[in-house]
Amino acid sequence: MNQLPKSDNEVNELLNKLVSSTHSPQGRFTANKSFNILQKKLSPRKYIFRPYQYISAAAAIVLILGFSWMFYYNTQSVSIKTISTLAEIKKIKLPDGTQVILDRYSSIQFPETFKEKIRNVNLLGKAYFEVTKNPAKPFIVETQSVNIQVLGTHFNVDAYKDDPSVTTTLLEGSVVVTNKKQNRKLILKPDETAIYSKLSATFTHLKKVDAEKDIAWSQGILLFNSAPMQEIALTLSHRFNIKIEIDDTFLRRHKFTARFDNQENLYQILDLLKSTGNFSYQKVDNKIKIQLKQN
Amino acid sequence: MEKRNEDELLTEIRKQNSDSAFRELYYQCYNRFFHIAYYYLQKDEWAQEVVLDVFLGIWNNRSMLNDVRNFSNYSFILIKNASMNFLEKENKRSTSTLDSITEPISSISSPEEKLIDDELFQCYIDAVDALPEKCREIFLLIREEKKSYLQVAELFNISPKTVDAQLQKAVSKLKEKINAFILDSK
Q1: CA pair distance B186, B58, nearest whole angstrom
Q2: Most exposed: A12, A52, A170, B3, by fewest CB within 10 Å?
């Protein structure tokens, strides 16, 4: 390696090398000039405001964006969104602010924006609606067999595919329920229910119902107020997505009053009912069969 | 402007979020930082970018500055690493655009040699930094920027003789430190 001590010449040479290995910032690279860049980096949103330049640039951008948005809005067909549930309850906000609570194994279809003169949604299954008021744009819930027209109101629709009926219960406001053929029509007031029978194609109008009971499901609660076993079986079959068959006519009409919450599963519920209802059940091929107890 | 202790400034930045202290630190350290970055990058634009990023990092991570024992050493490493990262990115970009697989091999010296170079360079930078302000400026103007004694004398409104005296003082101090470094590293 190097000899010791270094001669003065060698050190001088080393110093020269070091001096030329780098240099001080000059021109636009000086501390002063660079400080502006640093400030911009430190606060990206701060900028020097030169009114005319920026205003005209901004105006141009706004115009371009505006035109392209109009073009897009008018040419684009609105895409339809579908939201479905399995074993859960979902809260959904529609583009107009309407709140929907969708029950288990249900699905709802709506456009990404309500461009048409009517706010139209499609429902399969059960849902509770709190419709945002907009008299200029009626809100219509379409199910397989009935349409429900609204002007800002709270109501519950029960329209599962295989059910023999569609039930609409109104909590607030007013709705008009019509069947698809438009030959039958019912106007509901709060705490009234319209049950449309798919078989007979007629409406049953129930007054002074306990509407809160009909939306207990949205809190995950099952409420049965002297309900026939058949109705309970139907509700359970929706909640747990399983077919339930009852073999006995007497049993189908047997009435129960009960309340279950979110925690209880199908078997816990059936076990509880079984103890008072004098029946037994068994699971056969993804079906629950309920029979009168043999004794 | 009187040079303030950097640790003091750092404490102020960290504890009071003081942007005036940060600005002071910036002006105090910018040239030194630039020297270091340019040594690694050999390009003004790159050196500027790296130095500003390092300052940005110091400000953004000011809450962690209390771990810094020796700012001069710490900042040297900071800039060195930032420069290396920058080079790596640049290399990747240029090799991916397929225009240069040229120089790197020749510019990379043996690790030991490189290490000594870096350390010697750091010694030099620290020595320059330790010079009195006027002395340092005169040294850099004449040796780096190749300005004449007369130009510098006019600039500072002093006689060329004084310029020479200051320059000699700077050179002898720097040589002294270089010598000491060489002795030390033996």
Answers
A1: 35
A2: A52
Residue B117 pLDDT: 76
Q: Is A114 helix (H, G, I), strand (E, B) or coil?
A: coil
What residue in A sits closest to B145 (Cα-Cα)?
A23
Nearest CA in chain B to A13: B175
Q: Kindly report the nearest CA distance between residue B141 and chain A, in angstroms.
A: 9
Q: CA-CA distances (angstroms) from residue B65 to B7, B23, B85, B87, B129?
A: 10, 16, 22, 26, 22
A54: distance to nearest CA of chain B, Å?
A: 27
Which of B39, B51, B178 is opposite residue A21, by nearest beta carbon?
A: B39
Nearest Cα residue in chain A from B27: A31
B35 to A22: CB separation less than 8 angstroms, yes or no: yes
Rg of chain A (C-alpha set): 35
Reported ipTM = 0.83
Cα–Cα distance, A195 to A198 (Å, whole number)? 9
Provide the pairing of β-strand A80-84 with A107-111.
Answer: antiparallel
Secondary structure of residue A109 in the 3-state scheme: strand
For chain A, list residues whose CB is within 8 angstroms of any CB belonging to chain B: 1-2, 4-6, 8, 11-12, 14-15, 18-26, 29-31, 34-35, 37-38, 41-42
Give the type of residue at A248: D
Q: Is the dihedral of CA B85, B87, B90, B94 positive or negative?
A: negative
Task: Give the 3-state DSSP-derived string for A221-278, with helices as H, strands as E and coil as C.
Answer: CEEEEEEEHHHHHHHHHHHHCCEEEECCHHHHHCEEEEEECCCCCHHHHHHHHHHHHC
pTM higher than 0.80 for the full model? no
Residues from chain A that touch B175, judged by Cβ atoms under 8 A, are: 8, 11-12, 15
Q: What is the pLDDT of residues A31-90, one digit of tens each?
A: 988 988 888 888 754 444 556 667 777 788 888 887 777 776 666 566 788 888 887 888
Whether A98 and A131 have beta carbons less than 8 Å apart is answered as yes
